[in-house]
Amino acid sequence: MGSSFRRRAVHAGVALSLVALACGPKADDAAPPQTGQNPPQQVPQQQYPQQQYPQPQAYPPQQPYPPQQQPYPPQQPRPSQPTPQPPQQAQRPLLPPLIGTAAMQNEVRSILAELLAALGQSNQARVRGIPLVFDPALEVNAYAGCDERGAPFLAGTEGLLEAVDALAQTKATDEIFGTRTYDAYTNAVVPELAKSDKGRAALPPGIIPQELGPDARRWSRARELFDEIIAFTFGHELGHHYLGHTGCANGQPMGPGPSFTQLGQLATALVPGVNQPNEIAADTAGAQNALDAGLVRRPSYRWSERGGFLLLDFFARLERGSAMNPFNPAGIFLRSHPNPGVRLPLVQLVAQNWYAQHPGVQ
Protein backbone atom coordinates (compact mmCIF):
# COMPACT_ATOMS: atom_id res chain seq x y z
CA MET A 1 0.00 0.00 0.00
CA GLY A 2 1.39 2.45 1.19
CA SER A 3 0.72 5.11 -0.95
CA SER A 4 4.40 5.12 -1.73
CA PHE A 5 3.82 3.51 -5.06
CA ARG A 6 4.85 4.66 -8.41
CA ARG A 7 1.64 3.69 -10.13
CA ARG A 8 -1.43 5.66 -9.25
CA ALA A 9 -4.49 6.84 -11.15
CA VAL A 10 -4.94 9.93 -9.13
CA HIS A 11 -5.76 13.44 -10.26
CA ALA A 12 -3.78 16.44 -9.11
CA GLY A 13 -5.38 19.59 -7.86
CA VAL A 14 -6.68 18.36 -4.51
CA ALA A 15 -5.47 20.97 -2.06
CA LEU A 16 -5.32 19.22 1.27
CA SER A 17 -3.18 20.02 4.27
CA LEU A 18 -1.61 17.48 6.59
CA VAL A 19 -3.24 18.75 9.79
CA ALA A 20 -6.66 19.23 8.24
CA LEU A 21 -6.65 15.66 6.91
CA ALA A 22 -5.40 14.07 10.07
CA CYS A 23 -7.79 15.89 12.39
CA GLY A 24 -10.74 16.42 10.07
CA PRO A 25 -13.80 14.25 9.58
CA LYS A 26 -13.36 10.65 8.64
CA ALA A 27 -13.06 9.82 4.99
CA ASP A 28 -15.77 7.21 5.47
CA ASP A 29 -19.31 8.38 6.39
CA ALA A 30 -20.28 6.45 8.44
CA ALA A 31 -9.76 -11.19 38.62
CA PRO A 32 -9.49 -10.10 41.78
CA PRO A 33 -6.11 -11.07 43.17
CA GLN A 34 -5.86 -14.37 44.95
CA THR A 35 -4.73 -14.71 48.53
CA GLY A 36 -2.67 -17.41 50.11
CA GLN A 37 -0.16 -17.88 52.85
CA ASN A 38 1.98 -15.03 51.64
CA PRO A 39 1.16 -11.60 50.37
CA PRO A 40 0.27 -11.70 46.68
CA GLN A 41 3.11 -11.05 44.33
CA GLN A 42 2.93 -9.16 41.10
CA VAL A 43 3.63 -11.47 38.18
CA PRO A 44 6.62 -10.01 36.34
CA GLN A 45 6.00 -8.99 32.78
CA GLN A 46 8.10 -10.76 30.19
CA GLN A 47 10.56 -8.35 28.61
CA TYR A 48 10.24 -8.47 24.86
CA PRO A 49 12.70 -6.66 22.64
CA GLN A 50 11.98 -2.99 21.99
CA GLN A 51 9.84 -2.42 18.91
CA GLN A 52 10.23 0.68 16.83
CA TYR A 53 6.48 1.22 16.65
CA PRO A 54 3.69 0.51 19.18
CA GLN A 55 2.17 -2.95 19.22
CA PRO A 56 -1.57 -2.77 19.75
CA GLN A 57 -1.69 -6.47 20.65
CA ALA A 58 1.10 -8.49 22.21
CA TYR A 59 1.71 -12.01 20.89
CA PRO A 60 1.11 -14.41 22.46
CA PRO A 61 -1.35 -12.46 24.67
CA GLN A 62 -0.15 -12.64 28.24
CA GLN A 63 -1.05 -9.78 30.56
CA PRO A 64 0.37 -9.17 34.04
CA TYR A 65 -1.86 -8.74 37.05
CA PRO A 66 -2.45 -5.13 38.10
CA PRO A 67 -0.13 -4.01 40.89
CA GLN A 68 -1.60 -3.84 44.40
CA GLN A 69 -1.53 -0.52 46.18
CA GLN A 70 -1.49 -2.20 49.60
CA PRO A 71 -0.60 -5.79 50.40
CA TYR A 72 -3.30 -8.07 51.68
CA PRO A 73 -2.67 -9.53 55.17
CA PRO A 74 -1.45 -13.11 55.06
CA GLN A 75 -4.15 -15.71 55.50
CA GLN A 76 -3.96 -19.38 56.30
CA PRO A 77 -5.83 -21.43 53.72
CA ARG A 78 -8.03 -24.25 54.92
CA PRO A 79 -6.31 -27.64 54.67
CA SER A 80 -8.79 -28.82 52.07
CA GLN A 81 -8.45 -25.67 49.95
CA PRO A 82 -6.10 -26.06 46.98
CA THR A 83 -3.50 -23.43 46.27
CA PRO A 84 -5.10 -20.77 44.06
CA GLN A 85 -3.84 -20.64 40.48
CA PRO A 86 -3.80 -17.51 38.30
CA PRO A 87 -6.51 -17.53 35.66
CA GLN A 88 -5.43 -18.49 32.17
CA GLN A 89 -6.06 -15.90 29.50
CA ALA A 90 -7.49 -17.25 26.28
CA GLN A 91 -5.05 -17.09 23.41
CA ARG A 92 -5.86 -16.41 19.79
CA PRO A 93 -6.13 -19.52 17.64
CA LEU A 94 -3.09 -20.38 15.55
CA LEU A 95 -3.63 -19.54 11.88
CA PRO A 96 -2.31 -21.70 9.04
CA PRO A 97 0.54 -20.18 7.02
CA LEU A 98 0.20 -18.44 3.68
CA ILE A 99 2.38 -20.38 1.27
CA GLY A 100 2.62 -19.40 -2.38
CA THR A 101 1.28 -16.67 -4.61
CA ALA A 102 -2.21 -18.16 -5.00
CA ALA A 103 -2.75 -18.30 -1.22
CA MET A 104 -1.58 -14.72 -0.80
CA GLN A 105 -3.79 -13.46 -3.62
CA ASN A 106 -6.84 -15.15 -2.10
CA GLU A 107 -5.99 -13.58 1.26
CA VAL A 108 -5.85 -10.12 -0.33
CA ARG A 109 -9.28 -10.66 -1.87
CA SER A 110 -10.69 -11.67 1.52
CA ILE A 111 -9.18 -8.59 3.19
CA LEU A 112 -10.54 -6.31 0.47
CA ALA A 113 -14.03 -7.70 1.11
CA GLU A 114 -13.73 -6.81 4.81
CA LEU A 115 -12.53 -3.30 3.97
CA LEU A 116 -15.45 -2.74 1.60
CA ALA A 117 -17.95 -3.98 4.20
CA ALA A 118 -16.60 -1.47 6.75
CA LEU A 119 -17.14 1.57 4.51
CA GLY A 120 -20.12 3.85 4.91
CA GLN A 121 -23.02 3.52 2.52
CA SER A 122 -22.13 6.31 0.12
CA ASN A 123 -18.46 5.35 -0.24
CA GLN A 124 -19.33 1.68 -0.46
CA ALA A 125 -21.82 2.38 -3.22
CA ARG A 126 -19.09 4.00 -5.32
CA VAL A 127 -16.71 1.04 -5.19
CA ARG A 128 -18.96 -2.00 -4.58
CA GLY A 129 -17.85 -4.91 -6.76
CA ILE A 130 -14.60 -3.24 -7.79
CA PRO A 131 -12.31 -5.78 -9.49
CA LEU A 132 -8.90 -6.62 -8.06
CA VAL A 133 -6.23 -7.71 -10.51
CA PHE A 134 -2.68 -8.86 -9.90
CA ASP A 135 0.24 -7.54 -11.90
CA PRO A 136 3.12 -10.03 -12.39
CA ALA A 137 5.64 -7.17 -12.15
CA LEU A 138 8.27 -7.57 -9.43
CA GLU A 139 8.33 -3.97 -8.29
CA VAL A 140 6.69 -3.24 -4.93
CA ASN A 141 3.53 -1.45 -6.00
CA ALA A 142 -0.24 -1.19 -5.66
CA TYR A 143 -2.43 1.26 -7.52
CA ALA A 144 -5.95 2.40 -8.27
CA GLY A 145 -6.89 3.13 -11.85
CA CYS A 146 -9.44 3.22 -14.65
CA ASP A 147 -9.38 0.77 -17.54
CA GLU A 148 -9.73 1.60 -21.22
CA ARG A 149 -13.55 1.62 -20.85
CA GLY A 150 -13.40 4.04 -17.93
CA ALA A 151 -14.23 1.43 -15.29
CA PRO A 152 -12.34 1.44 -11.96
CA PHE A 153 -10.03 -1.30 -10.77
CA LEU A 154 -7.45 -2.03 -8.09
CA ALA A 155 -4.11 -3.69 -8.75
CA GLY A 156 -1.24 -5.14 -6.77
CA THR A 157 2.05 -6.49 -8.03
CA GLU A 158 3.77 -9.78 -7.36
CA GLY A 159 6.58 -7.71 -5.84
CA LEU A 160 4.16 -6.23 -3.33
CA LEU A 161 3.06 -9.68 -2.16
CA GLU A 162 6.69 -10.77 -1.83
CA ALA A 163 7.59 -7.69 0.19
CA VAL A 164 4.61 -7.91 2.55
CA ASP A 165 5.24 -11.63 3.11
CA ALA A 166 8.88 -10.92 3.97
CA LEU A 167 7.97 -8.03 6.30
CA ALA A 168 5.41 -10.18 8.09
CA GLN A 169 7.68 -13.20 8.47
CA THR A 170 10.67 -11.27 9.79
CA LYS A 171 8.67 -9.06 12.15
CA ALA A 172 6.84 -12.10 13.54
CA THR A 173 10.15 -13.87 14.14
CA ASP A 174 11.62 -10.85 15.92
CA GLU A 175 8.55 -10.39 18.13
CA ILE A 176 8.50 -13.98 19.34
CA PHE A 177 12.18 -14.85 19.51
CA GLY A 178 13.92 -11.50 20.02
CA THR A 179 15.90 -11.79 16.79
CA ARG A 180 16.86 -9.05 14.29
CA THR A 181 15.71 -10.71 11.09
CA TYR A 182 13.84 -7.64 9.83
CA ASP A 183 17.06 -5.62 9.89
CA ALA A 184 18.88 -8.47 8.16
CA TYR A 185 16.17 -8.62 5.49
CA THR A 186 16.14 -4.91 4.71
CA ASN A 187 19.95 -4.77 4.73
CA ALA A 188 19.93 -7.53 2.11
CA VAL A 189 17.17 -6.39 -0.25
CA VAL A 190 17.16 -2.58 -0.07
CA PRO A 191 20.52 -2.18 -1.87
CA GLU A 192 19.32 -4.52 -4.62
CA LEU A 193 16.02 -2.65 -5.02
CA ALA A 194 17.88 0.67 -5.07
CA LYS A 195 20.42 -0.56 -7.58
CA SER A 196 18.15 -1.91 -10.30
CA ASP A 197 14.53 -2.43 -11.29
CA LYS A 198 15.44 -6.11 -11.53
CA GLY A 199 15.86 -6.31 -7.74
CA ARG A 200 13.37 -8.43 -5.80
CA ALA A 201 11.79 -7.90 -2.38
CA ALA A 202 11.28 -11.62 -1.70
CA LEU A 203 12.70 -13.01 1.54
CA PRO A 204 16.22 -14.31 0.82
CA PRO A 205 17.18 -17.80 2.04
CA GLY A 206 18.90 -17.94 5.41
CA ILE A 207 17.36 -14.79 6.92
CA ILE A 208 15.05 -16.81 9.20
CA PRO A 209 17.14 -19.17 11.39
CA GLN A 210 16.51 -22.75 10.36
CA GLU A 211 15.51 -23.85 13.86
CA LEU A 212 12.85 -21.11 14.10
CA GLY A 213 11.29 -21.48 10.66
CA PRO A 214 8.78 -24.29 11.38
CA ASP A 215 7.41 -22.70 14.58
CA ALA A 216 3.59 -22.59 14.30
CA ARG A 217 3.34 -19.43 16.41
CA ARG A 218 5.67 -17.64 14.04
CA TRP A 219 3.64 -18.59 10.98
CA SER A 220 0.37 -17.58 12.68
CA ARG A 221 1.74 -14.20 13.75
CA ALA A 222 3.15 -13.65 10.27
CA ARG A 223 -0.30 -14.14 8.77
CA GLU A 224 -1.81 -11.61 11.19
CA LEU A 225 0.82 -9.04 10.20
CA PHE A 226 0.43 -9.82 6.49
CA ASP A 227 -3.29 -9.11 6.78
CA GLU A 228 -2.71 -5.91 8.74
CA ILE A 229 -0.26 -4.49 6.19
CA ILE A 230 -2.52 -5.43 3.27
CA ALA A 231 -5.50 -3.80 5.03
CA PHE A 232 -3.69 -0.46 5.17
CA THR A 233 -2.38 -0.86 1.60
CA PHE A 234 -5.70 -1.53 -0.09
CA GLY A 235 -7.65 0.71 2.26
CA HIS A 236 -5.41 3.45 0.84
CA GLU A 237 -6.06 2.38 -2.76
CA LEU A 238 -9.83 2.18 -2.22
CA GLY A 239 -9.64 5.70 -0.81
CA HIS A 240 -8.25 7.00 -4.11
CA HIS A 241 -11.42 5.81 -5.82
CA TYR A 242 -14.17 6.92 -3.42
CA LEU A 243 -12.42 10.22 -2.68
CA GLY A 244 -12.73 11.03 -6.37
CA HIS A 245 -9.01 11.01 -7.22
CA THR A 246 -9.47 8.71 -10.21
CA GLY A 247 -12.82 10.09 -11.39
CA CYS A 248 -14.09 6.70 -12.57
CA ALA A 249 -15.64 5.19 -9.43
CA ASN A 250 -19.18 6.54 -9.47
CA GLY A 251 -21.28 3.53 -8.54
CA GLN A 252 -21.57 2.27 -12.11
CA PRO A 253 -21.59 -1.47 -12.89
CA MET A 254 -18.11 -2.90 -12.51
CA GLY A 255 -16.29 -4.79 -15.23
CA PRO A 256 -13.87 -7.70 -14.84
CA GLY A 257 -10.83 -5.45 -14.75
CA PRO A 258 -8.00 -5.15 -17.26
CA SER A 259 -5.97 -8.08 -18.54
CA PHE A 260 -2.29 -8.53 -17.76
CA THR A 261 -1.37 -6.99 -21.12
CA GLN A 262 -3.62 -4.00 -20.56
CA LEU A 263 -2.31 -3.61 -17.01
CA GLY A 264 1.20 -2.88 -18.19
CA GLN A 265 -0.01 -0.16 -20.56
CA LEU A 266 -2.40 1.35 -18.01
CA ALA A 267 0.21 1.36 -15.25
CA THR A 268 2.59 3.35 -17.43
CA ALA A 269 -0.11 5.89 -18.17
CA LEU A 270 -1.13 6.14 -14.53
CA VAL A 271 2.10 7.57 -13.17
CA PRO A 272 0.95 10.87 -11.64
CA GLY A 273 2.70 14.19 -11.91
CA VAL A 274 2.00 15.90 -8.60
CA ASN A 275 -0.15 13.81 -6.28
CA GLN A 276 1.12 14.59 -2.80
CA PRO A 277 -2.22 15.92 -1.43
CA ASN A 278 -4.10 12.92 -2.84
CA GLU A 279 -1.63 10.52 -1.26
CA ILE A 280 -2.04 12.15 2.15
CA ALA A 281 -5.82 11.97 1.81
CA ALA A 282 -5.64 8.30 0.82
CA ASP A 283 -3.33 7.56 3.78
CA THR A 284 -5.93 9.06 6.11
CA ALA A 285 -8.77 7.11 4.47
CA GLY A 286 -6.80 3.87 4.42
CA ALA A 287 -5.81 4.05 8.09
CA GLN A 288 -9.39 4.80 9.14
CA ASN A 289 -10.80 2.02 6.94
CA ALA A 290 -8.35 -0.54 8.37
CA LEU A 291 -9.17 0.52 11.94
CA ASP A 292 -12.92 0.36 11.30
CA ALA A 293 -12.68 -3.06 9.67
CA GLY A 294 -10.44 -4.27 12.50
CA LEU A 295 -13.03 -3.28 15.07
CA VAL A 296 -15.72 -5.30 13.29
CA ARG A 297 -13.62 -8.46 13.11
CA ARG A 298 -13.09 -8.85 16.87
CA PRO A 299 -12.64 -11.24 18.69
CA SER A 300 -10.37 -12.27 15.84
CA TYR A 301 -7.12 -10.36 15.60
CA ARG A 302 -8.01 -6.66 15.37
CA TRP A 303 -6.27 -4.72 12.63
CA SER A 304 -4.75 -1.47 13.77
CA GLU A 305 -2.49 1.30 12.50
CA ARG A 306 0.49 -1.05 12.84
CA GLY A 307 0.16 -2.24 9.24
CA GLY A 308 0.77 1.29 8.04
CA PHE A 309 3.74 1.70 10.37
CA LEU A 310 5.42 -1.45 9.09
CA LEU A 311 4.91 -0.65 5.41
CA LEU A 312 6.00 2.96 5.71
CA ASP A 313 9.10 2.01 7.70
CA PHE A 314 10.07 -0.29 4.83
CA PHE A 315 9.62 2.56 2.35
CA ALA A 316 11.62 4.90 4.59
CA ARG A 317 14.51 2.43 4.50
CA LEU A 318 14.12 2.08 0.75
CA GLU A 319 14.19 5.85 0.34
CA ARG A 320 17.39 6.14 2.37
CA GLY A 321 18.94 3.37 0.31
CA SER A 322 18.00 5.15 -2.93
CA ALA A 323 19.31 8.57 -1.89
CA MET A 324 22.65 8.17 -3.62
CA ASN A 325 21.05 7.27 -6.96
CA PRO A 326 18.49 9.91 -8.05
CA PHE A 327 17.79 8.05 -11.30
CA ASN A 328 16.89 4.83 -9.55
CA PRO A 329 13.29 3.74 -10.25
CA ALA A 330 12.57 3.34 -6.54
CA GLY A 331 13.75 6.88 -5.85
CA ILE A 332 11.59 8.27 -8.63
CA PHE A 333 8.31 6.80 -7.40
CA LEU A 334 9.14 7.59 -3.77
CA ARG A 335 9.64 11.25 -4.66
CA SER A 336 6.14 11.35 -6.19
CA HIS A 337 4.69 10.67 -2.73
CA PRO A 338 5.05 12.38 0.64
CA ASN A 339 8.19 11.46 2.54
CA PRO A 340 7.63 8.40 4.76
CA GLY A 341 8.91 10.52 7.65
CA VAL A 342 5.84 12.73 7.14
CA ARG A 343 3.40 9.92 6.50
CA LEU A 344 4.31 7.94 9.62
CA PRO A 345 3.27 10.65 12.11
CA LEU A 346 0.18 11.33 9.99
CA VAL A 347 -0.96 7.72 10.37
CA GLN A 348 -0.21 7.94 14.10
CA LEU A 349 -2.33 11.09 14.41
CA VAL A 350 -5.20 9.53 12.48
CA ALA A 351 -5.05 6.55 14.82
CA GLN A 352 -5.01 8.75 17.93
CA ASN A 353 -8.13 10.54 16.73
CA TRP A 354 -9.80 7.20 15.95
CA TYR A 355 -9.05 5.81 19.43
CA ALA A 356 -10.41 9.01 20.98
CA GLN A 357 -13.68 8.29 19.17
CA HIS A 358 -13.64 4.63 20.29
CA PRO A 359 -12.81 4.68 24.02
CA GLY A 360 -12.10 1.30 25.51
CA VAL A 361 -10.65 -0.19 22.32
CA GLN A 362 -7.20 -1.59 23.03
Question: Could you describe the 3D structure shown?
Answer:
There is one protein chain. By secondary structure, the protein is mainly alpha-helical. The protein has one domain. Helix 2 crosses helix 6, helix 4 packs across helix 6 and helix 5 packs across helix 9. The longest helix has 27 residues. The radius of gyration is 23 Å and the shape is globular. It starts with 17 loop residues before the first helix and ends in a 5-residue tail after the last helix. 43% of the residues are buried.
In short:
The protein is built from eleven helices and three strands, in the order H-H-H-E-E-E-H-H-H-H-H-H-H-H. The protein has 362 residues and is mainly alpha-helical.
Distance between the termini: 24 Å
Estimate the mean pLDDT confidence. 77
Roughly how many Å is the radius of gyration?
23 Å
- Structural class of the helix and strand makeup? mainly alpha
Q: Could you name the key traits of this structure?
A:
362 residues, mainly alpha, 3-stranded mixed beta sheet, 11 helices, 3 strands, globular, disordered N terminus
Topology:
Layout: H1 18-23, H2 101-117, H3 121-127, E1 132-135, E2 142-146, E3 152-157, H4 158-177, H5 181-195, H6 216-242, H7 260-269, H8 276-296, H9 306-322, H10 329-335, H11 340-357
Parallel strand pairs: 1-3
Antiparallel strand pairs: 2-3
